[in-house]
């Protein structure tokens, strides 16, 4: 009798996809019809199949080395992955460990015809993901051109109205003004943090302030009335690099697109000081005769 594990995945991007429970139920029925014992269930909820950053998926691949099962059953191949490279790579890993991948809805064997069919199914799954991402981005860009909220938590100092436009949260805006005022007067992050935390001010998520939250606030152009969208660089190793920006040609940036909290005078003082501090980090650690007086001409 074959021994199998179940792998199920549900992505929150598409509410039409079968739930984890529905996938598992269909797989168990398949296993029963094919005289197969289910050893374990691996399931990733709200995880995209375009990446292998799925804890249960990776655990299943690792466990395949133990020789405890000889089959992985999925409801459809796109539950396993929608990336053709990942499908080929991890199927090879499973095969090396004596484990084969089986789909309930796609009856694939080792025949030449099945190889072609599987390639078509994998290509269609990858196309579906790429096309879905493109359509989602198209909708987000249209929303952004109207200077409306595109998702996630708004920055400290703002709320989102029913029509998705930004409105000022007066209480939070006062916190933002304090941060800019103290920094523009020459005090550092520690001074700002001590004042805010000692007087009970909180971040947007209700936590105490730290250096990262202060830094992000001081750099946020929204506070001077500039709406920006699509600034953050693409994911690296499945994580967004919030310190790295895309080329300006890809960014939607609209002056006056959002209510202003900080005036240009304070904003410019803060920017000048932040730029000065950034340049200072590149100076020599040792103290020399002309330290701070001689600079590179380029």
TrEMBL record:
Residues 3-151 form the Resolvase/invertase-type recombinase catalytic domain. Residues 155-280 form the Recombinase domain. This is Site-specific recombinase. It comes from the Bacteria. It comes from Gottschalkia purinilytica (Clostridium purinilyticum). CDD domains: Ser_Recombinase (cd00338). GO terms for molecular function: DNA binding; DNA strand exchange activity. Pfam families: Recombinase, Resolvase. InterPro entries: DNA_bind_recomb_sf, DNA_bind_recombinase_dom, Resolv_N, Resolvase-like_N_sf, SSR_resolvase.
């Amino acid at each position: 009798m074959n021994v199998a594990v179940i792998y199920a995945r549900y992505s929150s991007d598409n509410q039409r996809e079968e739930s984890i429970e529905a996938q598992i139920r269909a797989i168990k029925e398949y296993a029963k019809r094919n005289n197969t014992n289910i050893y374990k269930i691996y399931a990733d909820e709200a995880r995209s199949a375009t990446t292998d950053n799925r804890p249960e998926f990776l655990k299943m691949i690792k466990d395949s080395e133990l020789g405890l099962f000889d089959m992985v059953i999925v409801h459809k191949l796109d539950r396993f992955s929608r990336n053709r490279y990942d499908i080929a790579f991890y199927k090879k890993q499973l095969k090396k460990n004596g484990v084969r991948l089986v789909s309930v809805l796609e009856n694939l064997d080792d025949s030449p015809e099945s190889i072609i069919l599987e390639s078509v199914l994998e290509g269609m799954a990858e196309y579906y993901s790429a096309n879905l991402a493109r359509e989602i981005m198209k909708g987000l860009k249209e929303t952004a051109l109207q200077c409306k909220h595109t998702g996630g938590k708004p920055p400290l100092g703002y709320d989102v109205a029913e029509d998705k436009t930004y409105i000022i949260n007066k209480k939070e805006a006062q916190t933002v003004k304090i941060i800019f005022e103290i920094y523009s007067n020459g005090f550092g992050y520690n001074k700002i943090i001590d004042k805010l935390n000692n007087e009970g001010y909180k971040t947007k998520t209700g936590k105490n302030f730290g250096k990262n939250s202060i830094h992000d606030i001081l750099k946020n152009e929204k506070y001077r009335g500039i709406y920006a969208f699509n600034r953050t660089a693409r994911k690296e190793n499945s994580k967004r690099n919030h310190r790295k920006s895309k080329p300006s040609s890809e960014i939607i940036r609209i002056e006056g697109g959002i209510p202003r909290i900080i005036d240009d005078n304070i904003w410019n003082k803060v920017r000048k000081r932040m730029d000065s501090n950034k340049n200072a980090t590149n100076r020599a650690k040792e103290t020399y005769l002309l330290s701070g007086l001689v600079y590179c001409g380029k």
